[in-house]
Design a protein that fits this description.
The protein is of the alpha/beta class. Helix content is 41%, strand content 27%. It contains 7 helices and 10 strands. A 6-stranded mixed sheet has the order 5-4-3-6-7-8, sandwiched between helices. Strands 1-2 form a two-stranded antiparallel ribbon. Helix 1 packs across helix 6 and helix 2 packs across helix 3. The longest helix has 18 residues.
């Protein structure tokens, strides 16, 4: 793992119990030996750190964008916080926008809150994880209907490196289907490299038993 902030991010995830190991049933129905809960960061001190990790990744990946879009619900706080963190880190002002689950029929109306999105907008979408890519497809469909902006990329916290709707990864499917790059602050390989049989504050989060469970899951759902 070449970048220090990635190691720091992984340690941050396990220290805050946002990244857990055990047995969890995902929205997709898959039973997974690990789970990431971005909703764990509900204190200001933790949220600020989370947003800055996203901002560091945006800077590192050099994405050209002017709007940070977050899909409701978790993406709402992400797009606001990440755009602010990016401003402080990159010294460049960008806007943010998020969608409502239901269109507002009074006041300003519409499906979006925040910056208007047009065909001239360059949008980066921020979210927590991507498994099958269903939620991202919904966001892309919504954005196309609203303003059909240029999608500069997608940034997620963790690339689970597993199959999407077919045999390819969800990340690769999005690239092939839409021509959009999906970036992640860290991948599952990064997490294994950082945690397998290594102590963080005196605790080993991925021991041989846990690693065996992760490998079995990857044998069934993973991609290289």
């Amino acid at each position: 793992m070449a970048t220090d902030y990635k190691q720091q991010f992984i340690e941050f995830l396990v220290r805050t119990n946002a990244l857990k190991f055990g047995e969890f049933t995902l929205k997709s129905g898959r039973k997974c030996p690990y789970f990431l809960n971005i909703g764990q960061f509900y204190n200001a001190s933790l949220a600020v750190q989370l947003f800055d990790y996203y901002a560091q990744s945006l800077v590192e990946n050099g994405m050209d964008f002017d709007v940070v879009f977050g899909p409701a619900y978790k993406g709402i706080t992400l797009c606001v916080g990440v755009s602010a963190a990016y401003y402080f880190r990159a010294k460049r002002d960008v806007a943010f926008s998020f969608n409502r689950k239901e269109a507002k029929d009074h006041g300003e109306g519409g499906m979006l809150v925040g910056a208007p999105i047009t065909k001239d907008s360059k949008v980066v979408i921020v979210d927590d994880v991507m498994t099958a890519g269903t939620a991202l497809r919904e966001s892309l469909d919504l954005l196309k209907k609203i303003g059909d902006p240029k999608i500069a990329g997608v940034l997620i916290a963790v690339d689970r490196m597993e199959k999407g709707q077919g045999e390819k990864s969800a990340v690769q499917e999005v690239k092939d289907e839409f021509g959009i790059d999906v970036f992640a602050i860290v991948t599952l390989d990064d997490i294994i490299s950082a945690l397998y049989n290594k102590e963080i504050d005196g605790k080993v989060y991925i021991d041989d038993v846990q690693m065996k469970a992760i490998q079995a899951y990857r044998d069934q759902y993973g991609v290289k």
